[in-house]
Write a structure and sequence with these properties.
- By secondary structure, this protein is an alpha+beta fold.
- It folds into two domains: about 40 residues; about 70 residues, Histidine-containing Protein, Chain: A.
- Helices cover about 45% and strands about 15% of the residues.
- It has five helices and three strands; from the N terminus they run αααββαβα.
- Strands 1-2-3 form a three-stranded mixed beta sheet, with helices on one face.
- Helix 3 packs across helix 4.
- It is elongated.
- About 10% of the residues are buried.
Length: about 150
Amino acid sequence: MRRLSVRRSNAARDATLGAAGLGLGLVAGFILRGFVGGMDRRRIRTLVGEMTGQHRVPFAMPRQDAIRITAALGDDPLLGGIEFEVVTVRIGQVELHGWVPSRAASARAMRLARSAAPDTEVTNRLKVRGEDDHPGGAGADEEERQPA
């Protein structure tokens, strides 16, 4: 007697395994994002502190940050005559406002501000004279070009 073999389709099993793998991958992705996602300077510092055992106070008081940054900018011989305004946005974040004579002065001011308050995010809102004070273009009067 002849024996008949019946081949079974593996499509249903493959579809089930594929769906399970997709679901597990999504769950693993959300879990990993919680550990790794959204990295910024503050979070990296916290993770390094946890691994090395060196814990620092995460943030100084916002007013102290502004005072330290203002003092560092005022003590610099090249930037001492420039008036800067340090605006606290929220705890751990400030903005640096004012007019500087050049891009190099702007970069120097940002370096000093970041070194004066290393745990604070400093946003550059400085304007460069001669570049950022032209409102309309070539047709504007010379008086209109001067910042207020």
